[in-house]
Amino acid sequence: MSKIPTPFRPLQISVLTVSDTRSLAEDTSGDALIANLSAAGHFLYQRELVKDDVYAMRAVVSKWIADENNHVVLITGGTGFYSRDSTPEAMIPLFDKQIEGFGELFRHISYEEIGTSTIQSRAVAGLANNTLIFCLPGSTGACHTAWNGILKEQLDSTHRPCNFVELLLGAYHSKLHEV
């Protein structure tokens, strides 16, 4: 019995940069995420930059998770230990479910690149209103690490044995009802 190959299903992905010092013109981390998601066949849905303020972040992300056409939110910045770094504090209350292994896997992969400095990353991820939210460090290198080491495969509907696209677009639930 041969399996029918799963087709690639592009996602609508929004990118939020959290920074007190950068503008969109200087946002190399956001640019890297957009280049990666585009190269993978996904679509940039929206892009914004906000100061590292809990309520400003929540306002943008709340709008995006309420939009059924937006599938994923990638946030870069605000995950460190400086006093203004507050991305995890802003996003975790919005999560319906936290993706517990994301931060651990990110730090494991990042360790190979930056050694013990990875312990200062508070990368987190979760699901809110059927929208995935990934909170990444603000460095361009960290954005590439997260994309190439985790997100590229988990946002690819052809990746096996599982991926998040099945959850987001209902393919997994449709298969259950076909049996």
TrEMBL record:
<comment type="similarity">
    <text>Belongs to the MoaB/Mog family.</text>
</comment>
<dbReference type="InterPro" id="IPR012245">
    <property type="entry name" value="MoaB"/>
</dbReference>
<dbReference type="Pfam" id="PF00994">
    <property type="entry name" value="MoCF_biosynth"/>
</dbReference>
<dbReference type="InterPro" id="IPR013484">
    <property type="entry name" value="MoaB_proteobac"/>
</dbReference>
<protein>
    <recommendedName>
        <fullName>Molybdenum cofactor biosynthesis protein B</fullName>
    </recommendedName>
</protein>
<dbReference type="InterPro" id="IPR008284">
    <property type="entry name" value="MoCF_biosynth_CS"/>
</dbReference>
<keyword id="KW-0501">Molybdenum cofactor biosynthesis</keyword>
<comment type="function">
    <text>May be involved in the biosynthesis of molybdopterin.</text>
</comment>
<dbReference type="InterPro" id="IPR036425">
    <property type="entry name" value="MoaB/Mog-like_dom_sf"/>
</dbReference>
<comment type="pathway">
    <text>Cofactor biosynthesis; molybdopterin biosynthesis.</text>
</comment>
<dbReference type="InterPro" id="IPR001453">
    <property type="entry name" value="MoaB/Mog_dom"/>
</dbReference>
<feature type="domain" description="MoaB/Mog">
    <location>
        <begin position="14"/>
        <end position="158"/>
    </location>
</feature>
